[in-house]
Each structure stands twice: as structure tokens, then as C-alpha cells.
Amino acid sequence: MGPTSKNRGHMCLELFSAFSKISAFTLGGGLAMIPLMEREVVERKGWVGGEEFLDLVGIAQSMPGAMAINLSTCVGYKVAGIRGAISASLGAILPPFLSIVLAASLILAVKENPLVERAFQGIRPAVVALIAISVLRLSRAAGISSRTAAIPMAIALVVLASGLHPMYMAAIGIAASALWAAASARRGGP
């Protein structure tokens, strides 16, 4: 085993470890995991830059399946290829899988317990706060300012009011950007 494969093996272990820690201690699903993933892979590890992380979030959200697993797969692939994608994905999948198996075996005994119900009522606001933090960070990374904030807010309102799937809005956004770029190119602008 040469130094390259030894380093690759170590990187795969680091990816598995990082994503398993994140998924083991995050409640609220994929969106709640984004700020923790960003802190780990951008700020602490430096595996990807902030803008690149935002691009990977966009890719992960546009793929079918669980966003957190998709994002871990994208980061793992970027960092260490196929083996990295597999390692990061397994790290993101195993802790929730094991906790679901454990919870399923205990749920019938405690589901009516008032303490358990109150615990979940206390967890919900924290999850909303984590999602709000994620939205603010992603907005900054996307270059959303107070002047341009109306665009994503309008899109969110259209999706909420119409029930239109967000992917249609993404497709409309892509088409509008392409038309804008073509019109700008004809005028000789950026």
C-alpha cells in the first residue's frame, strides 16, 4: 500500500467519522444538518470553500433522496472520489439507521409518556432555529442582500401559495437566468 492509498484510506476514515458525528447528533433532518456540515467541512476541515459548499447543497437538493445523504455523498466524492463518497454516505446513514432500529424497538413503550411528548415539544423550536441559521448562512453565501431578498421570498411564497413543486421553480429560475445571460450577451454586457 503506497502513501497515496494510505492517505486516501485515512481521508475516507475522516469522512466517515465527520459525517457520522454530524448525523448522530442532529435532530430535524437534512436541512438542520446543513449548518453543522458547513462548519465541519468548510470551517474546520477546509475540505471545500464556502461557495463550493453552496453549489454542493444545490446539487444535493436537486437529486432524489435524502438531502443530507446526497450532500455527504457530494462532499465525500469531491474530497476523495468514489471511496470518499461511499465513506461519507455510510457515515451519514449508519447513526440514524441504528437509532431508528433502537427507537422502533422502544417506541410502543413510551409513545404515550407525557415526558417524551414534552421533550419533543422542546426540540421542535431548536430545529426551526437550526433551519433559520442555515437559511441565513446560505443566503449570505449566495450573495443575497437586503436588495435581492425579495426574490427568494417571492419564490417561497409562490411555492407555499400554489403548492407548486420547488423543482419547477428551480427550472424557471434556470430558464430565466439563461434568458438573462443571452440578452446581456447580445447587448454586450456581463
Topology diagram in text:
Layout: H1 3-24, H2 30-44, H3 50-62, H4 67-110, H5 114-141, H6 150-162, H7 166-187
Helix pairs in contact: 1-2, 1-4, 2-4, 2-5, 3-4
Give an overview in words.
By secondary structure, this protein is mainly alpha-helical. It has a domain at 3-109. 83% of the residues lie in helices and 0% in strands. The protein is built from 7 helices and no strands. The radius of gyration is 20 Å and the shape is globular. It starts with a helix and ends with a helix.
Summed up, what is this model?
By secondary structure, this protein is mainly alpha-helical. It has helices at 3-24, 30-44, 50-62, 67-110, 114-141, 150-162, 166-187.
Largest sheet: none
Mean pLDDT: 86
Q: Which word captures the global form? A: globular
The termini sit apart by: 50 Å
Low-confidence stretches: none
| Main structural class | mainly alpha
| SS field, number of helical segments | 7
Helix percent band: over 70%
How many β strands by DSSP?
0
Strand content: under 5%
What sequence of helices (H) and strands (E) makes up the elements?
A: HHHHHHH
Which quaternary structure do these chains form? single chain
Whole-angstrom Rg: 20 Å
